[in-house]
Amino acid sequence: NKFKYIKAQTIRVWLKRDSGQYWPSIYHTVSSPCSCMSYHHDSRRIFIGQDNGAVVVSEFLISEDFNKMNHVKTYPAHQNRVSDMIFSLESEWVVSTGHDKSVSWMCTQSGSMLGRHYFTAWASCLQYDHETQHAFVGDYSGQITLLKLEKQTYSTITTLKGHEGSVGALWWDPIQRLLFSGASDHSVIMWDIGGRKGRTLLLQGHHERVQALRYLQLTRQLVTCSADGGIAVWNMDTQREEAPQWLDSDSCQKCEQPFFWNIKQMWDTKTLGLRQHHCRKCGKAVCGKCSSKRSTFPVMGFEFPVRICDACFETIKEEDRTPLATFHEGKHNIAHMDMDPSRGLMVTCGSDRIVKVNNSPLIPDNLCVFRPCQTNLLKQIQLVMLELHSGHEIGISTILNSKHYKNRNWFSQFMDHV
């Protein structure tokens, strides 16, 4: 048991050998289980978040034999598990979120706390715009909060509401100014921050919670991964339409039959109330009889058949059903994913204690599989691929072991501060 406990709180560097297999080159233990990691390539600094709330800042100095790792300092950043973190070399800040329902930002030069903001739910994921110092924080209530961070102060810009489950992953593209979010409601949302029109796109193609995503800016493709091992590649370089807002009504907006809570109309017409449904294409409230059809509608993000009212079904042509996404099988529960688009490499880590290095972000043909630990089922593992000047490929992984896993006007408010 002691041996397993130690292995659950280690930082390991995996070196790719001549045989093509990865073997651990550095094996470093920390005081408590690791929960997240941020690595800066140029400065070779690693920031490790832990279950006890401490953020350990380690300076990673690799010698020719790849076996050296020096600890720099420890920050008392949170009072509970650290869920995500990002290091900004430009401002010398490390921004982190935790299960103490807060986001904090600290100065890496002085080691002092610069600010903290509390939420009503666990903060689960984080993205940061290094140029404008805006932070995007997803939480377990399904909301995404936009904050403008300053030294010793901050301002709350707005809150993005669109998910019906906890937000599990965020990705910010500073070039096109697009924010992507994935959640436990199996959906992905694209928030067009730079468009200044409050445009959002809903993407539905997963059967389980979305836990990792990455936007490839050059090819305009979004790669998303879910807990059941599903990998979706979305074509974002095409004209897409916003899914309509669902309308409220006391009776079917097609046949005018009352819904079951409309007691007055049920009494007047001497009919039984019906169950309310919604057409995914027009958003109208309809009964089951008026929405008996099912169809895909990829232009609105529906890659699987969804409920369509009979009237809208007649307007959908066969070419409208052409898929705008491809789906692949990761063959394990994907908890984290990272990519190197320049070399066509994808790394996925799963709760099955397996790390997979794939040679293509689109069709994952496995190049290398290794088992980084022998602990009990992990909640999340994180690995980042690095390319050193010598040409060697290094994988830096943190082993996580935790008991817990547990509006349309946003754009104008945000752009006023950008």
TrEMBL record:
GO terms for cellular component: early endosome
Keyword S-adenosyl-L-methionine recorded: no
Taxonomy, superkingdom: Eukaryota
InterPro entries, alphabetized: WD40/YVTN_repeat-like_dom_sf (IPR015943), WD40_repeat_CS (IPR019775), WD40_repeat_dom_sf (IPR036322), WD40_rpt (IPR001680), WDFY1/WDFY2 (IPR042234), Znf_FYVE (IPR000306), Znf_FYVE-rel (IPR017455), Znf_FYVE_PHD (IPR011011)
Domain FYVE-type, residue spans: 246-317
SUPFAM superfamilies for this protein: FYVE/PHD zinc finger, WD40 repeat-like
GO molecular function annotations of the record: zinc ion binding
UniProt keyword annotation of Protein transport present: no
PANTHER family hit by this protein: LD41958P, WD REPEAT AND FYVE DOMAIN-CONTAINING PROTEIN 1
This protein's name: WD repeat and FYVE domain containing 1
Species, as recorded: Mastacembelus armatus
